[in-house]
Amino acid sequence: MKQRDFERRYEGQWQLIENWLTGYRKNTEVGREPDTNDDLPQNYRRLCQHLAVAKERQYTGNLIARLNQLVMQCHQRLYRQKNVSSHRWLEFIFAGFPRALREQARFVWLACGLFLAPALVMGLGCYWNDALIYAVMSPEQVLQIESMYDPANRVLGRERGSDSDLLMFGFYIKNNIGIAFRTFATGILFGLGSIFFLVLNGVFLGAVFGHITRVGFVSTFYPFVIGHGAFELTAIVFAGAAGLRLGHSLVNPGNLSRRQSLREAGKEAMKIMYGTFLMLVIAAFLEAFWSSSTEVSIGIKYAVGGCFWLLVVSYCVFAGRRLPVTAPAGSRL
User: Residue 44 and residue 35: Cα distance in Å, rounded?
Assistant: First the structure.
């Protein structure tokens, strides 16, 4: 292919890239956040190919210099853009996630009620009536629950096929995320699925709390759950809130079609779910490496667990309330 034909074929692509780079540079100079370009990695690879072809066919020096300059600029912007994306993740963790929770506060409070009310009723019922727990668990399951928190155990929590805390960490991640995902995803059934799993988990949790308290394993059970529970239990509530948001978009789509309403609700719900998954990873880590330890004193576990609950509540209520300051046009940061 002659150079003239080569330039005619790809000139439009080069011009688009040059225009974006020019806009990127201008935004940076005036202190504004530059626009990201999702096609930048693909365009960068194409430019590298074009440059290689131009060198191989010994096209003019002006064309090779132009393509080389574009490749260098795209390379710099590409890795700068990756850094911007990492900063956005940090911004989401420290501000975006708690803001998303507060924006959907009515669904968070509804999910909290659907989870805690059955837990409280079932907990008190199982504490006062030792036969009530068998309405939700088999005798074998009850014995397993009792053995998990028996003070005579070397390790608290689930029975382990291996002494490796790392293997249990993986198990807890799979188990916790599975519960949260079901609670969230079934919200697409007009919210009924999320309601069902919130109530079901509340009933099960309350039954365990009430029965273990009744049999007298308080000294092992509460120190075990207080630490990771701050992240795990709140994450289940948040997953339920995200599912309820999906269901509400179908029940009350407003002026939008149900498909469009669900699409918009999905964007809002996923903001909550990203943070929820992170909380479940933290909970799994604590449950595997901290909560199950019998070497840490009960007092320390209560103190640390109380700090975790205070941290989670404070994070949800106060984090991200200070909006970022936008630099005025023409200013330099």
Answer: 16
Q: Which two tokens stand for residue 208?
A: 């365990």
Beta carbons of 110 and 244 less than 8 angstroms apart = yes
Smallest Cα–Cα separation from 92: which of 325, 280, 274, 321?
Answer: 274
Q: What are the sequence ranges of the domains in the chain? A: 3-88, 104-318
Q: Identify whether the C-beta of residue 47 lies closer than 8 Å to the C-beta of residue 17.
A: yes
What are the pLDDT digits (tens) for 58-110?
888 888 888 888 888 887 776 665 554 556 788 888 888 999 999 999 999 99
Distance CA 53, CA 200 (A): 63
Identify whether the C-beta of residue 188 lies closer than 8 Å to the C-beta of residue 259. no
What is the per-residue pLDDT across 258-292, written as a single tens digit (0 to 9) for each? 999 999 999 999 999 999 999 999 999 998 888 87
Query: Can you give the pLDDT at residue 268?
Result: 92
3-class SS of residue 131: coil
b/e code 247-270 from CB counts within 10 Å (16+ = b): bbbbeebeeeeeeebbeebbebbb
Share in percent of the chain as helix, strand, coil (round to 5): 80, 0, 20
DSSP secondary structure of 15-74 = HHHHHHHHHHHHHHHTTPPPPP-TTHHHHHHHHHHHHHHHHHTT--HHHHHHHHHHHHHH
Q: What does the alpha-carbon distance between residue 330 and residue 188 come to, in Å, rounded to a whole number?
A: 47
Tokens of residue 49, six digits: 């190919």
